[in-house]
Amino acid sequence: MTTFEARFAALIGTRHAIGVGSGTDAIKLSLKAVGVGHGDEVITAANTFIATVGAIAELGARPVFVDCDDTYCMDVSQVEARISDRTRAIVPVHFTGYMVEMAPLMKIAESRNLPIVEDACQAILADIEGKRAGTFGMTGAFSLHPLKNLNVWGDGGVITTNDDAIAARLRLIRNHGLRNRDEIEVLGYNSRLDTLQAVVGNWLIGTTEDITARRIDNAARYDEGLLRIKQIRLPPRPENRKRVYHLYSVFAEDRDGLYAALQAAGVECKIHYPIPVYLQEGLKGFGYEKGDFPVTDRHATEIISFPCDQHLTCEEIDYVLECVRRYYGG
Ligand SMILES: Cc1ncc(COP(=O)(O)O)c(C=O)c1O
């Protein structure tokens, strides 16, 4: 495991990488390490995957949501207004593999003395002007789940950090807080990265750059084809950042009709997500209501993700494009 951790730290460009049981645990343990606990508030994105929110809630903290914009990431201009006396951390989510505007977010966090835990589970090797996801905040949380760009053969996660004290604390927390066999320094969890998964990770980590390049090429082929279909709108594609396309998502007119037609044609398209997390029944207790996050709500009706993984062929992508064209009568 230590070899995998060292290689992961080198890949991302941080002093430390700490293997844990999952991406969810990578967020949860990070939040615990920076001091989040019962009754605290943690700011995060309204359109994220449940894991981000579950990690916050498991610590007894309240997720305080911020709406996204058409990049699918948190609208940083709304963060300041959501900070209260109880805010203890901010969890930006680099959703789809596109990075949150980190420079203004870091400024806010620094001025309010709030730690940032980056949810980089979908964003391995994404960057802004060459600075990678997982290197901005106090920690970066990565997932090695089988659906992720770099994946192992089960669950796994990694936390990156440049902070020696936080790294030492995380190494304790992931192993029951055990200082040694007989002494417990803090209360922790059983969340070590499984040795077998670390072996798989070691075997695959050298291919991460290739996997990323394949996904970027796939996305470029989609972009070129979809730009000519007026019923499809692409999200912004600013030059100064690397998008790693864990998901390839666009906005579509008559989204549900297109989704059904593509499924019928054998295309495994997906919707991320048809019901925003903040409106899920399991989160009722937090008291959010429909309309609280209008951009997230709109995305739930417009967004569609096309297959984009590294195993796709050009012919398969062209087939998806042809199906989309045919659906809109082109
Ligand atoms: C945005 C986001 N956060 C957190 C996670 C949690 O990762 P894991 O499934 O490894 O617990 C995932 C993926 O599942 C994710 O997509």
User: Regions with pLDDT < 50 over 5+ consecutive residues?
Assistant: none
Largest sheet: 4 strands, mixed
Strand residue content: 15-25%
Element pattern in H and E: HEHEHEEHEEEEEHHHEEEHHEH
Bound molecules: pyridoxal-5'-phosphate
CATH topology (fold) name of the largest domain: Aspartate Aminotransferase, domain 2
CATH-level-4 superfamily name of the largest domain:
Type I PLP-dependent aspartate aminotransferase-like (Major domain)
Residue share in helices?
25-40%
Rg for CA atoms: 20 Å
Whole-number count of domains: 2
Write a short abstract of this structure.
With 330 residues, the chain is an alpha/beta fold. It has helices at residues 2-12, 23-33, 50-58, 102-111, 164-173, 195-204, 208-226, 255-264, 294-302, 314-327; strands spanning 16-20, 41-45, 62-66, 87-91, 117-119, 127-128, 131-132, 139-143, 157-161, 232-233, 241-242, 248-252, 303-306. Strand 2 (41-45), helix 3 (50-58) and strand 3 form a beta-alpha-beta unit.
Descriptive account of the structure:
This protein has 330 residues and is α/β, with parallel strands linked by helices. It has 2 domains: 2-206, Aspartate Aminotransferase, domain 2; 207-327, Aspartate Aminotransferase, domain 1 (Alpha-Beta Complex), CATH 3.90.1150. 34% of the residues lie in helices and 15% in strands. It contains 10 helices and 13 strands. The strands form 4 sheets. A 4-stranded mixed sheet has the order 1-9-8-5. Strands 3-2-4 form a 3-stranded parallel sheet, covered by helices on one side. The termini are far apart. The relative contact order is 0.15. It binds pyridoxal-5'-phosphate. Pyridoxal-5'-phosphate (PLP) is lined by residues 22-24, 48-49, 51-52, 93, 119, 121-122, 143, 145, 155, 157.
